[in-house]
Amino acid sequence: xxxxxxxxxxxxxxxxxxxxxxxxxxxxxxxxxxxxxxxxxxxxxxxxxxxxxxxxxxxxxxxxxxxxxxxxxxxxxxxxxxxxxxxxxxxxxxxxxxxxxxxxxxxxxxxxxxxxxxxxxxxxxxxxxxxxxxxxxxxxxxxxxxxxxxxxxxxxxxxxxxxxxxxxxxxxxxxxxxxxxxxxxxxxxxxxxxxxxxxxxxxxxxxxxxxxxxxxxxxxxxxxxxxxxxxxxxxxxxxxxxxxxxxxxxx
Length: 251
Description:
The chain is α/β, with parallel strands linked by helices and 251 residues long.
């Protein structure tokens, strides 16, 4: 039985003070749900403050990105050494990073390797665009992203990662995939290709999340699907009560 996992991706939202207030309002609801792994992924600027707030809890902290080199002349980047000072998790390959900042399957692969080498658990994002979906390329695109992003890691390393299927056309649009559609891709494409790469036993241990316009009202429908192990939540993770309800749905 895979333990449910819900992560909140705050994206480029909340100052440090705003983040502090949001977490303070979330903590009672999140701490009450012990059977779900709960992770918050705020902007880099809030990591130090929130690490202190969460230190005495079982709620995890994640970064939204990292660079694959540990140090050097890479102005504006954050290394895995810097991330692991405060975090256990890191989001890698989110569609917004691919779309706006030129990330590719190859750079995702480098970041995954760097995260694992530094003891971080990557939350690796895959998903197709609306154009790819409408032209029937969903399976081909997701298969490529899984194979190239996770190529070259060992079975032991693969067992520790988290994968998030996020159809790009559903992110921030209010247009979620149906629960059955999401489960079909997660089980039939993502988990299948993980099984091909690492074996069925390992694939069955890897938690695969759904992300894309998940709300308190539709979360339960997604989470009751056989292959969906939780969610990578965007906008709803900025609302304390709604995020807590989503975590409760995962439980």
